[in-house]
Structure formats: C-alpha cells, structure tokens
Give the backbone structure.
Amino acid sequence: MASEAAALGGPEPGAPRELRTLRLQREREHVLHLQLNRPGKRNALNLLCWRELLECFQDISRDPSCRAVVLSGAGSAFTAGIDLSDLGALAGEPGGDVARRAWNLRQRILELQESFSVMEKCPKPVIAAVHGPCIGAGVDLISACDIRFCSQDASFQVKEVDMGLAADVGTLQRLPKIVGNQSLVNELAFTARVMRAPEALSCGLVSRVLPDKATLLEVALEVAAAIAARSPVAVQGTKVNLVYSRDRPVAEGLLHVATWNMAMLQTEDIPKSVQAALDKKGPEDVPFAKL
Ligand SMILES: CCC/C=C/C=C/C(=O)SCCNC(=O)CCNC(=O)[C@H](O)C(C)(C)COP(=O)(O)OP(=O)(O)OC[C@H]1O[C@@H](n2cnc3c(N)ncnc32)[C@H](O)[C@@H]1OP(=O)(O)O
C-alpha cells in the first residue's frame, strides 16, 4: 500500500530527495546540515533554490529522525540574495490585463514567502550559520530561522531598495521583532547600509560571532546536537509556542500553551527526564523516542 508521504508527493520521511541547489547531510545524531550550494554564484537564490528550500523543510518537518537543522552557505558567501536574472523576470511578460498580471504576481510572491516561512513553521529549531555576505533575500531567509550565529567576516545588507523594490519575503515583518529597534531597521531598509558582524551582535540579529567559518560551523553543529539531545516533545513544543506567542498578547500565548500542554505534559519524556535528573544524568543520557 502506498505510504502517506508518497500520496502527498514527497519521499518517505528521512529518505533523500535529489537536490541541485542545496546539499543536505546528516552531520550528528538527529542533526541535519543544509547548505545553500551554488558557490560559483555566491549562493544566489534562483527559482529552483526557492522551491528546493520549500520541499526540503517540508520533508524535515515530517522526518522524525531530525530534531535540529543547521543552515549554511557553501563557498565564500552565505548568499548574494535573489538570483538577479530571476528578479527581472518575476513581473512576467508586459502587456495583457493588469488585474490578471497583478493577481498572478501576488500568487508568485506568496509562494516565494512560503519558501522562508516554512522554516518558521517547521517545529525543529533551525540555526543559521552566516559567513561572508548575506544580502537581500538572505536577510529575509535568516530572519525566519530560530538562532543566528555568524563569523567575524559576515556582513548583512537589506539590499532590496537598491533594486527598486520593498523587501517582501519577511525582513520588514520579522527583523523589527528580532532586533527590537525600529529606528535601526528603518535605517538599514531605507539605505541598504552594510551591517558588519560586531553591529549584528550588538543589535541582536545574531547571538554569537565566531572567528572563522570552520569554527562557526563547529559551534552551530554543537548547539544543534545539544538541542537534538533533549526531548523532542519539549523542544518542538517550545518552538511552536515561542513562534505562536511572538505575534500575540501574553494572555493568548498562555492559553495556547495550556491547551498544548494538556496533551504534551502526559508524555513519557517527563518521567524519563525527572529520573535522569534524580540519577544525576543529563538529557543526553535519556533515550527519547522519535517524534
Ligand atoms: C518577489 C521577490 C522577492 C525577493 C527579493 C530579493 C531581493 C534581493 O535579494 S536584492 C539583493 C540582490 N543581490 C545583490 O545585489 C548582490 C549581488 N552580488 C554581489 O554584490 C557580489 O556578487 C557579492 C558581494 C555577493 C560577492 O562578490 P564576489 O566578488 O565574491 O563575487 P562576484 O565576482 O561578484 O560574483 C561571482 C559570481 O556570482 C554571480 N552572482 C553574484 N550575485 C548574484 C546574484 N544575486 N544573482 C545572480 N548571480 C550572482 C556573479 O554574477 C558571478 O557570476 P559569473 O560572472 O558567472 O562568475
């Protein structure tokens, strides 16, 4: 009988999907490392890349063997943003009915937004490990991740105004909530000023700056492994509730987590964790079942 995954058009959970613009590797137990992989084009995001990101994170959301993800870029840049040859073509052919063209373009933009929103919807924590330039759509992308680390050589640029458009795939919505400084976000978004690693740290865009790319990846994978060692019921419930509460009043968030935990507090992970603590063991010593 065909599996549910096959019926939905995706591979079996954990089964590899053929990727042309990304590289997916299992680096540690329960940890996946996803690389933007067009180094010759500085990982510029072409249309295939946007689609592969969407499909990859849909697979990861369903994959019970994955508990945390590190996202990085191959080569000398994290990403040069949208592939400029696609940006020009996005508006489609001139001519025809303006309402229908606008309708189709809106649909396209919503689809592109989903390629990043899928990371936020994925219950497994995603760590962005940024080295070198992170430009335009790259900032939108990392804004949808849960944790951001960078190397000393990283730079960030909300570049869209220089291309003649308002950023429309997440930066304007998420960045103010991340850095908590609307004046700074406005300045960056109006001027496309390049922000370097020390400022990214001081404003809260990233939570750690590492000396180089190798150390950055090592630390990001270590943190991912630490997350993956903990109860997936606890970690994934934490992410879902953090994301839910970010955009809502405290009272609504509290109600949501109460409803969430009325099921999740019945997990076997709690007595297992409590026993481990009593035995002076850590969560990494507890064999949590897949989720
Ligand atoms: C509905 C739409 C939603 C999305 C909107 C998104 C908007 C944006 O992302 S705006 C930002 C667009 N990006 C840029 O303006 C960055 C352009 N690139 C650069 O500034 C530099 O390439 C960079 C600083 C990233 C790296 O410089 P470096 O000297 O290391 O490399 P280059 O010699 O410049 O480039 C190497 C090859 O990569 C190609 N390339 C670089 N960026 C892009 C890009 N964004 N799109 C397509 N191709 C790119 C570059 O052409 C070189 O290719 P080749 O000549 O074949 O070697």
User: Anything to note?
Assistant: Residues 41-42, 44, 76-77, 80-85, 90, 109, 112, 133, 135-137, 159-160, 163, 168-169 surround LH2PNOKW (CB under 6 Å). The mean pLDDT is 94. The domain at 4-228 is CATH 3.90.226.10 (2-enoyl-CoA Hydratase; Chain A, domain 1). The beta strands are 22-28, 31-36, 68-73, 126-130, 133-135, 147-151, 155-157, 195-196, 208-210.
